[in-house]
Each structure stands twice: as structure tokens, then as C-alpha cells.
Amino acid sequence: MAEIKTIASLNEKIWYRGLKTIYLLVYALTLYITIIVDKDFYEVLIAVAIFEAIRRAFYYVVLGNIEPKR
Predict the structure, then answer these.
(1) Cβ distance 31 to 44 under 8 Å?
(2) How far apart are CA 10 and CA 42, in angstroms?
(3) For 33, phi and psi rounded to 5 degrees?
(4) What is the pLDDT along the chain (70 residues), one digit of tens a residue?
């Protein structure tokens, strides 16, 4: 039984890491496009704030917590 729990825990960690990696790639790509297309610094800051809010909302809805446990 402990073995099954360990595997489930490992799968959750891999899933969270994969999710976080995908999120960071999308975030970096969007930020890069925002900076290249429109070099207005304030709009970049607004984009960062919006993505941070989306990330926190996503973690809250999907994981039930603001930040995932490491």
C-alpha cells in the first residue's frame, strides 16, 4: 500500500513540474513577444501582472492552493 502511495506522490510531482514548465514556457514566449512587438515598459509590466494573476488563479482552482507544495 505504501508503494502505491509513493508512486502516486511521484506522479503528482512529475505532473506539477510538467505543468509548471509548460506555464513558464508560455509565459516567457508571451513576454518575449510583448517586448519585441511593443517596447513600452509599462505594458510589459501590465502583462507580467496579468500572467501572475492567471497563474495564481490556475493554482487555486486546479490544485486548491495558491502555491503548489514542493
Answers:
(1) yes
(2) 41
(3) -60, -40
(4) 555 566 666 666 767 777 777 877 787 787 777 777 766 777 777 777 888 887 777 777 776 665 555 5
Burial class of residue 69 in the structure, from the number of CB atoms within 10 Å of its CB (0-12 exposed, 13-18 middle, 19+ buried): exposed
Q: Is the pTM of this model over 0.85?
A: no
Cell of 39: 517596447
Q: How many beta carbons lie within 10 A of that of residue 41, not counting itself?
A: 9
Per-residue confidence (pLDDT) for residue 63, from 0 to 100: 67
Distances in whole angstroms, Cα of residue 39 to Cα of each of 10, 19, 50: 42, 29, 17
Give the number of other Cβ atoms within 10 Å of residue 51's Cβ: 16
CA distance 31 to 47: 7
What are 30's three cell numbers? 508571451
